[in-house]
Amino acid sequence: MKKIFLVLALFTTAFVQNSFAQDSTETQPAQLLNAYYKLKDALVSSNATSAAAKADELVKAINSTDKQAVNGDARVALLKDAGAISGSKDIKLQREKFANLSASMFELAKTIKLSAEPIYQQYCPMKKASWLSNDKAIKNPYYGNMMLTCGTVKATL
C-alpha cells in the first residue's frame, strides 16, 4: 500500500511541476505583448518619460522570454528598437523607433501566438507605419492628441 501511495505521489508531483513549467512559458508571449501595449499607450499620451520606462519594461520582458519562442533575428530587432526608445526622452525619436518595433512585433505575432484575444494591426497613413492594438478603436501612437483617431485597422490576428 505504501509503495502505491509513493508512486502515486511521485507521479502527481511530476505532473504538477510539468504543468507549472508549461504555464510559465505560455504566459511569456502574453507578457511581451502587454509590455508592448503599455509602451504604445504611453506614446498615445505623448509622455516621453513614461514611454522610456515602458520600453525598459519591454526590454526586460524580451530578455525573460524563452529563446525558443523569440529567437535570433526577431529578438535582436525587438531589443534594438525597444532599447533605443528606453534610452531616449525625445518623443519624436521614440515614435520613429516604435514604427520599426511595431513591424517586428507584427512579424512575431504572425509566427507565435502572443494572445488568446484578437490583435489588431492598425495603420497610420500620415506616418505610413503600423502598430498593434488590443482594441479596434484607433488611438494613434505616432501623433497622440494631434491626430488621435487617424488610422485604420489593416489586419486582425
Give a brief rundown of this model.
The protein has 157 residues and is mainly α.
Account of the 3D structure:
The structure is a single chain. The protein has four helices and three strands, in the order ααααβββ. The protein is mainly alpha-helical and 157 residues long. It has one domain (26-156). A three-stranded antiparallel β-sheet has the order 2-1-3. Helix 2 (48-64) packs antiparallel against helix 3 (72-86) and helix 3 (72-86) runs antiparallel to helix 4 (91-111). The N and C termini lie far apart (53 Å).
Features of this protein?
3-stranded antiparallel β-sheet, 157 residues, 3 strands
Write the layout of secondary structure elements.
Elements: H1 2-44, H2 48-64, H3 72-86, H4 91-111, E1 120-124, E2 129-133, E3 152-156
Antiparallel strand pairs: 1-2, 1-3
Helix pairs in contact: 1-2, 1-4, 2-3, 3-4
